[in-house]
Amino acid sequence: MLTAIYAIFVFCLIIFVHEFGHFAAAKACGIRVNEFALGMGPRLVHYKGKETEFSLRLLPIGGYNKIEGEDEDSDDPRAFNNASVWKRILVVFAGALMNFLTCILILIIVYATVGFASTTVGEVIDGMPAAEAGIQAGDTILAIDGKEIAVWTDVQTYTQAGGDTLSVVVDRGGEKLTLSVPIVTEDGRRVMGIRSMIKHDVGLAVREGFTGTWSMAKEMYAFFGGLFAGKGSIDDVAGPVGIVSIISDQAKTGFLNVLYLTAIISLNLGIINLLPLPALDGGRLVFLIINLITGKRVSTKVEGTIHGIGMLLLLAFMAFIVVKDVLRLVG
Known about the structure:
Layout: H1 2-28, E1 33-48, E2 53-67, H2 85-114, E3 116-124, H3 129-133, E4 140-144, E5 147-148, H4 152-161, E6 165-172, E7 175-182, E8 184-186, E9 189-191, E10 194-199, H5 202-228, H6 240-251, H7 255-273, H8 281-294, H9 300-330
Antiparallel strand pairs: 1-2, 3-10, 4-5, 4-6, 6-7, 8-9
Helix pairs in contact: 1-2, 1-6, 1-7, 2-5, 2-7, 2-8, 5-7, 6-9
């Protein structure tokens, strides 16, 4: 039950923000939106606004905006097809943009909640070498074996790489002390018996939200590039069934891990939607860029046919991924 709740939360959130991006951009550009729907299938509830119908549908596996003139020519002066190219580009791009911003926001929340390991000792474990050597909670580690410590991972790195006894320089209330700390091995790792003091820094969380999103985006683009170049493996691609399985695993470790996974999936959705393939937002952007460069618009009928074929291929690919995920789970 918990997995189902988390799965619905994840899918609804990332789809809602994506479709809301299209909706908000269309409204900002003065383009008519006839319906904003969350979910697919039969309509459960709906509300008719001034010009837009808002609906919640049975299956939490998608969502859509019914924008006037998006898929067919319309004589309405506020139709999508009658808007300027730049406005149409903004509306199409806004969905992925919202997914990127959602990833950044979620990472900021996660980092601000979890905090960051500092170079200050938060706990000294009784009976371990650090306690016997005189290291105390509140000491800030400045250097290990002459190597400067900038972040907590440096402490871990130099502990693993050092000798049987480390020369540790600490700052204790403004006084520098040099302590000799023997090393013991636990579970295959060299340790001295200290834990970092966790600090909560909103400014650092904001920075890490942006840099973390950028790092993940580069890795995802590299993966897709390798996949299209034949260097990746389709086994590393997961569909809805595979994602639910991953959500189930993360649910066992706490909500923050589910939230972190949501950020990754949101970023993934944004990137995939910008791929220059028919039926995706990226495919629509290709036609709009052609319009922008040449000054001529590809006919709605031709573009619709290409997107229709692309949608059929996309659905076939999704069916293949779902079957692969099910077989993987059964196996």
